[in-house]
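Posting this for the archive.
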Amino acid sequence: MEIESQRVRSAPSTFLCQVRELWGRISCPLGKYGSTVHPIERLRYVARATHVPADVLARETAIALADFVGDAAGLLIACRRILDRQAASGPLVWLAAQVLGAPNQRKALWDVVELLEDDRTPAALAYSVPDDAVVAVVGWTDAVSVLARKRGDLGFVIVDTDGNAEYQIDRFADEGQTLVTVDAEGTAQALLDATHLLVPFEALGPNRGLAPMGTFQAAAVARHLEVPVWGVASIGVALGERMYGGLVRRWNEQVGGPRYLRELEEVPLSLVDQVITTAGAVTSADAVQNSGCPVVPELF
């Protein structure tokens, strides 16, 4: 494919470890005499976090919520405050629901974090994609970063909807690996050369899922071109109907404004052929059914 913005770069394999270390310093700063930050301040740090890997954000959320264990009303308020600021995060809704419904809430916090950090979805995705495939994706996500590092034989076509893709390519692409970027208006032509379209979801419900803006049209074009569309749902992303509905209502209230100006959009699952989860490739219905998210209406 002849695309002017093609880039070939290498990146350190320890990047996520460095992010985790740096984020830990930012979110849990020590005071002048070594005392930890006040629980309310820690909660604010987490609530305001942006562009942080999902497992890091979940761990820091658990640390923030641990200060409120034993105070049922305080814990619920803390959960709702975080979700008000991280309105599109399925994993945080899943985490909060697991903790609020558990008899031992402190143990539940760390059990959930361990599950999120041991998530096998990236490995399942790397295993499922055929050799020498050309993968298209809208925007740059954690799932793309991990897949690019694990599978040097793959080619990538990134639909750059936010102007951030080339910067990420410079940081994550392995030496000799081909990644190209195209503007949103070139989506259809780019998909002509793709073997798969990946849709990394922020949250997934029975009929729709939240994904980067531009994914809906890319999935529709891929379906027309008979390019397989694979969703990606890490642990905590898939939610049952009531919990997903609550998440979307909160997200609509918090984001506001015209839908076409948002960073995310809902994508019908009728356009998705299968979903890659920690258990491997499954149908979207199975991904939701096996989510294990309790119904906690108080969160909304």
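The beta strands are 134-138, 155-160, 179-183, 196-200, 203-204, 208-212, 229-232, 264-268, 274-277, 280-282. Residues 1-35 have pLDDT under 50 and may be disordered.
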